[in-house]
Amino acid sequence: MSAGFGSIFKRERIKSKATAADKSVLPTYASTGCSDRLLSLRLIRTISLVSLLGASLLTSCGTPGIPLPPSLELPKPVADLHAKRKGDKVYLTWTAPARTTDRQPIRHFGPTRICRRAGLLETCGAAITEVPTVPPKIPAKNPTPQPQSYTDTLPQSALMNPSANLTYAVEVMNDRGRSAGLSNKVQVPAAPTLAPPANFAAEVTADGVVLSWVPVSNPGEISGLHYLYRIYRREENSKTETVAGELQLDSTPNPGFVDHNLEWEKKYLYHADVVTLVAGKPGSETKVEGDDTPEAAVFTHDIFPPAVPSGLQAVFSSENEKLFVDLIWNPNTESDLAGYNIFRHEEGGSSIKINSELVKLPAFRDLNVSSGKKYYYSVSAVDVRGNESARSEEANEIVP
After folding, report:
1. What is the per-residue pLDDT for 13?
2. What is the pLDDT of residue 386?
């Protein structure tokens, strides 16, 4: 409130008090009309002063506050960078930002810088490359971040220190070449990898799928490193891979592997690579896979009969004047075994099958025998697809 308005208001207040005092001593028979006019004039003057004072206060409330700085439009740093190494390739994936650090939709996109350094990475420095930033999907008021990726091919100079790590980060820029900083940092081993085995092949046998290849040469003794073959298997039309087996690099001059853990009548695809193992803390190792061989495809069509039963024995017995011959043999171990067939013939005769249904257990009792005859027995094994083995060695018995 200004000093002028304060003085006026104060004088009017004093005059009002004096007027009130004067009025209090007026005779009761004074003219009331004149007094009312004086009071009205003074009330009008007071209201005018209050109005001016209010206008002054309202004018002072309209003074603008401290101005806000304009937005720098810096893209929000990436927080979900991932890295996976395979051979001399490092596969980077992340989600491109859709908003600025001010939580506003990004209007003007700049490039994304790919940063790599051996050891610690505090600032990007000279980026290995720049890629266009993938813009979000519309609508612009609620943008949806999009996935982005980049594959880095490592130069040989980056693989000189087997015990080192390579650190990666990405930096998303605006159209004026400014950023809010690096993404989260990720690391991959810098250990060297070996070329995949040559002439990788797969063949279906009765024992399983036999895999073979030309051995890979060991590059020599490097402290803290050793190598192994790793074989993968997947079913046709499936992206899920299973490790079928592993084999030390120098375990044999003629490496190979038999995959027993499969199902018949399916198509499988196999490939292999050489894994570099980097020694770390006790009980821990870092593994880096090399490049893959071409896939080898097989169809596991089962045309392979079970093994021929062995250990057949025939023993005559009787019970309550009932004659019979008991047969026993060693059980087959195939997982797809369905049962056994039993064959018998007499001296000089032809063999006939004497069971009406497959025998499930490795034992059989022949009740259809006659006294005074000699019987010759053999057994075959049958799998669930009807493949039947050759017959076993014969066992004979005389019925007294």
Report:
1. 46
2. 95
**Weakly modelled stretches of the chain, pLDDT under 70:** 1-70, 139-141, 281-283
The pLDDT of residue 93: 98
Instruction: Tell me, rounded to whole angstroms, the distance of Cα 332 from its chain centroid.
Output: 42
Q: What is the CA radius of gyration of the chain?
A: 48
What are the backbone dihedrals phi and psi of residue 199, each rounded to the nearest 5 degrees, phi first?
Answer: 55, 45
User: In sequence order, what are the residues at sequence separation of 6 or more whose Cβ sits closer than 8 angstroms to the Cβ of residue 219?
Assistant: 192, 194
Which pLDDT value is given to residue 216? 94
- Compute the half-sphere exposure of residue 37: CA atoms within 13 Å on the CB side of its CA: 3
The pTM score is 0.70
Q: What is the pLDDT of residue 64?
A: 59
Q: What are the pLDDT digits (tens) for 279-292?
A: 876 667 889 999 99
Q: If DSSP states are collapsed to H, E and C, what string results for the chain?
A: CCHHHHHHHHHHHHHHHHHHHHHHCCCCCCCHHHHHHHHHHHHHHHHHHHHHHHHHHHHHHCCCCCCCCCCCCCECCCCCCEEEEECCEEEEEEEECCEECCCCECCCEEEEEEEEEECCCCCCCCCCEEEECCCCECCCCCCECEEEEEEEECCHHHHCCCCCEEEEEEEEEECCCCCCCCCCCEEEECCCCCCCCEEEEEEEECCEEEEEEECCCCCCCCCCEEEEEEEEEEECCCCCCEEEEEEECCCCCCCEEEECCCCCCCEEEEEEEEEEEEECCCCCEEEEECCCCCCEEEECCCCCCCCCCCCCEEEEEEECCEEEEEEECCCCCCCCEEEEEEEEEECCCCCEECCCCCECCCEEEECCCCCCCEEEEEEEEEECCCCECCCCCCEEEECC
Q: How far is 72 from 224, CA to CA, in rounded Å?
A: 49
- In this prediction, residue 63 carries a pLDDT of 54
What are 283's two structure tokens? 């009980």
The residue behind tokens 């017995």 is: 317
pLDDT in tens, 344-380: 999 999 999 999 999 999 999 999 999 999 999 999 9
pLDDT for res 67: 65
Are 261 and 268 in contact by the 8 Å Cβ rule? The answer is no
